[in-house]
Amino acid sequence: MHTAVNDPEHGFCRDCLTPQPNAAPRCARCGSPRLVRHPELYRLHLAHIDCDAFYAAVEKRDNPALKDRPVIVGGGKRGVVSTACYIARINGVRSAMPMFKALEACPEAVVIKPDMEKYARVGREVRAMMQDLTPLVEPISIDEAFLDLAGTERLHGMPPAIVLARFEKRLEREIGITASVGLSYCKFLAKVASDFRKPRGFSVIGEAEAHDFLAMQPVTLIWGVGKAFAATLERDGIRTIGQLQKMEQAELMRRYGSMGNRLYHLSRGRDERVVSADRDTKSVSAETTFDQDFGKMDDLVPVLRALSEKVSARLKKAGLAGRTVVLKLKSNDFRIRTRNRQLEDPTRLADRIFSTGLELLRREIDGTKYRLLGIGVSDLCDAGKADPPDLVDTRSHKRALAEGAIDALRDKFGRGAVETGYTFGRGHRGKPARPGEDDEPDVRHPWERI
């Protein structure tokens, strides 16, 4: 059944929030064309908010001279694009694109190395603003989250749709970045809606229209259907969600297992997942992409040590520890290797993370050259369970005490106050040494900043 999405009895202006009494293309009060109309607009309460080109938006906010220029946030020529502003995207730049390809597509782009501490700080400000709307905020990443505003109309004195529009205005006014909102009755379609009209979008998908809307969409719209699985469906002659809607659940599960069950339900707009504010962190990791390929221990070990220290610092700050150490490598032909080892006890110590990662790394030194190295820990738990005394390795307690002393000095005097022999003279935390930064300014190593 066709849904009259421009029903004149429903709608408001996103700029002045004035209700719209007719189907005119512009606001009756302020003249803005940014109107929202939908017959289910005031009944829906589940939203997905996604900040627009977040890293690039923060950089443009902090440097107004970049406002009308294409901006790419990412590594050097050997790195990849983390975020591209919409001007750069018009020129063909995409997230995760190798930097050399991005610069071929948009040679006039301004390339900025990521400042993750700054982005995390802004992300926390955005999150706090979301939590002013509802306690049910489920973060998906640093710049996006699901929100459930059911039952908040009495608190705010207005329906969720208008609350979300006010949030967009407040975000622009107080933080200086923009976001896009998707409003629907389930998480799947709220996420789909938020991608519709970026940047500064506000899209609605109601329950009455969901089946017909989905029927026209490609299968890749469904969460979990990536390139490989889409190719499998293509070989089976399935290209659209409408084709999935005509198939029985048993047939889909016979062909595709548990993924078939997901295809059956999501293709029909059925998603029973709830917004959970208690999502736990699953892992803590750090990685870096090199300016040139490396395959020798002498080059890789200092970077592994620096990354291990960074992971350890994050764990300690969050009050977490992990039982499984994971090593990640990407070869010069872009193949990814991951190796892991489970420890007897959880750890948050840089020394244990590094030594375990070192054992894993030695096994991968086989002549292959690598363009990326990463280390992380998973199977997280409370830090109170971490690093009990080792009756076999009696020196481990002394190393733990020494690391605690190093942490105290770094907290007081900065991260560069103390370095281990693995990284000393190599550029603090793995970044290329610059004159005045290290005792040996002539020592240069071509790995990216960690």
From TrEMBL:
CDD domains: PolY_Pol_IV_kappa
Record localization: Cytoplasm
Domain of life assignment: Bacteria
Any one of the GO BP annotations: SOS response
Main subcellular location of this protein, as a coarse class: cytoplasm
Location of region: Disordered: 421-450
EC number per UniProt: 2.7.7.7
Keyword Glycoprotein tagged: no
Keywords: Cytoplasm, DNA damage, DNA repair, DNA replication, DNA-binding, DNA-directed DNA polymerase, Magnesium, Metal-binding, Mutator protein, Nucleotidyltransferase, Transferase
UniProt-annotated site: Substrate discrimination, residues: 55
Cofactor list: Mg(2+)
Stated family: Belongs to the DNA polymerase type-Y family.
Protein name: DNA polymerase IV
Recorded name of the encoding gene: dinB
